[in-house]
Amino acid sequence: MKHAIGVDIGGGSIRVSLFDETGNELKSNHTKTPEHLNNDSFLKLLVETIRPLKDGSIGIGVGSPGPLNNDTGVMLNSANMVGLSNLPIKSVLEKEFSLPVFYENDANCAALGEAIFGNYKQYESQLILTLGTGIGGGFVKQGQLYTGYLGNGIEIGHTTAVLDGALCGCGVRGCVESYFSTKGFLNRYKEKTNTLLPHAEAFFELVKAGNKDAKNILDFGTKTLAHAVRNAVQLLNPEAVVFVGGITKSYDLFGGPLEKEIRETIFSVLNERLKMGPGGNISGTLGAASLVFVKEKF
Ligand SMILES: [Zn+2]
């Protein structure tokens, strides 16, 4: 059975696991990344975190926040890892380990992992939304990831939900992730009440406790998300829409109205065939490793 390495680069840590092609994790390793980084110190840490797992692997898949160039395998910059710029991930790892290296943004990796190993893996195509700090998106058709030109496509979080709406981290007003994401909920709640909540769980606790402001923010956010998904479904016509990421732990608080609004606003011919719901709990490292398994196949 073939084995592949998946690398998940996040703000604060590098996680690496070795998987077999059925998705079983065989070994793992991780390193905390220091606050002050430069390209050389980061690449050294990355190589040393991967090294103990390299034996028996047919390739390395890497996921990180974008923006990136998936052809050259370069991370252009990162909002969470200041100090890194034009980081040549693919060339450095290929040289070090003499293995093929595939590199995509983390939302695309999550989407591919979900499409290959998750709850909706049997379907022809999947649109996957990662609901977390922000909103990531990915589209997989017949087991292949659609990344857009050089890897920055399906950025559903940064599609417009409210014209001239709240300011998003990307610098534009009204993106859907300004209304439905951890950042969105906390910012909208602070705007309304002048209270900064520490995390999404605190926000959902307020919703459960019947707090009117929190409930209104969630209801409006759910509506904006539903219409972002509607737009994407009308464009892509996926067989399944799958929601993954930390916020889906609270799916019972918004999933019903979300699915209802989507189903009521897409073409009825699309609605009849569409499957929709929360995904499996596929790790970022397995998502990255699935890049290798998929490239093997095509
Ligand atoms: Zn935005």
UniProtKB/TrEMBL annotation:
This is ROK family protein. It holds the Pfam family ROK. It comes from the Bacteria. Belongs to the ROK (NagC/XylR) family.
